[in-house]
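Example 9 (inverse folding). The structure is encoded as follows.
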C-alpha cells in the first residue's frame, strides 16, 4: 500500500469529491420546493420559415435555461441564491433546493427575478457547451 499524498493526513483529493457535495446537508429538514426547468432559444424568420440555420427544437440548440421555483409565503429578502457552473442552490427559511443542472452554465451572466404575484423565483442562465460553435452556427 502506497500513499501518493505528501500530507499523510489527507484522506482524499479535491478531484475525488463530487461537485455540489459541499452544499448537501443531511440534517437540514426544509422542504424542497416545486420547480420547473425550461429551455429557450433565439429564433428568427430564417429559422422558423426557411430553415436556413442548423437549429432544431432540441435542447442542444437552446441558448438559455430557465428555472422556475415556487416559493409560497416567501419575501424577496428571505431568498438566498448561489449559482455554480453545474449547481443551483436556493434557500429560504422554509424551503431548500439543491439542483444539479443538466448543462454547464455561465454563473456570472445569469438573471434572477422574483414574481411576487405568482410567488415564483425565475432564474435565467446562459448554457455553455463545448461544441456550441457547431450547434449554433
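The amino acid assigned to each position is listed next.
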Amino acid at each position: 500500500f502506497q500513499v501518493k499524498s505528501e500530507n499523510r493526513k489527507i484522506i482524499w483529493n479535491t478531484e475525488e469529491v463530487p461537485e455540489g457535495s459541499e452544499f448537501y446537508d443531511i440534517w437540514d429538514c426544509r422542504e424542497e420546493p416545486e420547480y420547473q426547468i425550461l429551455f429557450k432559444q433565439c429564433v428568427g424568420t430564417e429559422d422558423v420559415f426557411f430553415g436556413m440555420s442548423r437549429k432544431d427544437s432540441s435542447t442542444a440548440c437552446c441558448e438559455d435555461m430557465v428555472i422556475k421555483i415556487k416559493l409560497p409565503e416567501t419575501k424577496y429578502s428571505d431568498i438566498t441564491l448561489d449559482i455554480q457552473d453545474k449547481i443551483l442552490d436556493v434557500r429560504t427559511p422554509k424551503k431548500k433546493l439543491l439542483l444539479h443542472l443538466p448543462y454547464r452554465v455561465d454563473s456570472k451572466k445569469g438573471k434572477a427575478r422574483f414574481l411576487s404575484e405568482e410567488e415564483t423565483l425565475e432564474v435565467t442562465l446562459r448554457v455553455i457547451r463545448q461544441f456550441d460553435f457547431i450547434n449554433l452556427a
